[in-house]
Specification:
Layout (H helix, E strand, L loop, with lengths): L4 E2 L15 H17 L1 H12 L12 H7 L5 H19 L6 E4 L5 E8 L2 E5 L8 H14 L3 E6 L11 H10 L3 E4 L2 H10 L9 E3 L4 H10 L4 E2 L7 E6 L5 H12 L6 E6 L2 H15 L5 H11 L1 E4 L3 H11 L3 E5 L15 E4 L5 H6 L25 E8 L2 H17 L3 H14 L1
Helix pairs in contact: 1-2, 1-7, 1-8, 2-7, 3-6, 4-5, 4-6, 5-6, 7-8, 9-10, 9-11, 14-15
Length: 429
């Protein structure tokens, strides 16, 4: 099935993603409630039922010996690449650090903001059928840079009744500096992080991608803890002109389409020649792609080439789509950067392929999906800090402004607020 060539008005520029069926929501909520009520007992029951792995409570935590043994199971090229990627990711996120501040007025009033890291953060890393060591780095390193003292990681045991964890995930965790790691996944892991069990202490925030049950469980516990986001299917939009190489574009579109059947891969261009060349190239490359079935389903359901009248319309379409990943492959891509209002990550030029950001460059690959780039950002250091306002009002400032405060309080019908100021003024005047 070839990609569809459409005008923008023929394509729905806003994709509505349903977060699970009613049955899936009910199942996720039941798992969360059971773990909240029964702790380790429910955690172990669901691990056996859903993952096919029978564990005892003392097997939940991964030992240091297991982590070290994993090093003998990974190849040296991976180890070198993951270490260099970690350096790049850490360097990028260190530039995001901000400091507490205080302003002191001549009258003695002090106003400021105190920045503190969260105390304990839970990181969910997918495992089982699909293991993503890169997700370890993208979640753990920003939290470390923020100064979070306790970072706990959960990841499912391997499929097929084995209690082991993918060695590449273990090595990535060790390289990232994770000291506390549990072999548990799914909605039950999210519940354990949120409410705590006999073996796992509760956290303040949960981050990291997972399957639909993980997403629904995160939504269910939000408010008890903070969460990073409810991630939707992956997306890529390529904005290109007739100077772009169709082989590059096709490869980048397929790099996202292979994620899952609901991923979205879209080319936006005013060049009909390029549009047709990319459609043909996608067919050619798809034929030899190992995950061709998944990518083909993604292309058929959510892929498209959108032919615009000109680049101005193309920019408008991009901003309406607000994509997770945006590539700009044009003759002068930097000249278009200031016109991009909504995008999670922007890749500029023909050599900035989306996987560069996924794995190695340094910016975070956990990026807002489903149009939420209109109002949210990639995971960053700010996600792992909290801010407290500081107010130290002087006597002089209260005498000068107290009546204004009372006026506002009484306008809102809150006499108690007004009197809290009035009682001080009556004693100081």
């Amino acid at each position: 099935m070839s990609m569809k060539l459409l005008k923008p008005e023929q394509f729905g520029l806003k994709r509505e993603v349903e977060y699970g069926t009613p049955e899936q929501n009910a199942d996720a909520q039941k798992i969360v409630a059971d773990v909240k009520a029964k702790g380790d007992e429910a955690l172990l029951q669901y691990t056996e039922k859903l993952d096919g792995v029978k564990l005892s409570a003392d097997q939940l935590r991964v030992t240091e010996e297991e982590i070290q043994a994993a090093y003998s199971q990974v190849d040296q090229a991976f180890l070198e690449a993951i270490r260099e990627a970690a350096v790049n990711i850490r360097r990028f996120h260190e530039k995001q650090l901000r400091n507490s501040w205080m302003d002191l007025s001549p009258d003695g009033t002090m106003l400021g903001q105190l920045i503190r890291p969260l105390k304990r953060v839970g990181v969910y890393v997918p495992g089982g059928k699909a293991a993503y060591p890169s997700s370890v780095l993208m979640n753990v390193i920003p939290a470390q840079v923020a100064g979070v003292p306790e970072i706990v990681m959960v990841t499912p045991p391997a499929t097929g009744g084995k209690a082991g964890i993918d060695p590449y995930i273990l090595v990535a965790a060790a390289e990232a500096g994770v000291k506390e790691l549990y072999r548990v996944g799914g909605a039950q892991a999210i519940a354990a992080l949120a409410y705590g069990t006999e073996s796992i202490a509760p956290v303040d925030k949960i981050c990291g991608p997972g399957n639909i049950y993980v997403a629904l469980a995160k939504r269910a516990v939000y408010g008890v803890v903070d969460i990073d986001s409810i991630a939707g299917p992956s997306e890529i939009v390529v904005l290109a002109d007739d100077t772009a190489d169709p082989a590059y574009i096709a490869a980048d579109l397929l790099s996202q389409a292979e994620h899952d059947e609901m991923a979205s891969a879209i080319l936006v261009t005013s060049s009909e020649k390029l549009a047709n060349a990319v459609i043909a190239e996608v067919d050619i490359q798809l034929a030899s792609l190992p995950r061709a079935g998944i990518a083909a389903a993604s292309i058929e359901q959510y892929g498209a080439v959108l032919l615009t009248e000109n680049m101005e319309e193309g920019l408008s379409v991009v901003n309406q789509l607000a994509p997770e990943h945006l590539e700009i492959i044009t003759e002068d891509p930097m000249s278009l950067l200031s016109y991009i209002e909504n995008a999670g990550a922007i890749f500029i030029g023909p050599y900035s392929s989306e996987p560069v950001g996924d794995y190695f460059a340094g910016p975070n690959h956990i990026i807002p999906t489903n149009g939420t780039a209109r109002f949210s950002s990639p995971v960053n250091v700010d996600d792992f800090i909290k801010k407290s306002s500081i107010i130290r009002y002087s006597k002089q400032a209260l005498l000068e402004n107290g009546h204004k405060i009372m006026t506002l309080a009484r306008h809102e019908g809150l006499e108690g607020h007004a009197r809290a100021i009035e009682v001080r003024l009556s004693k100081e005047v």
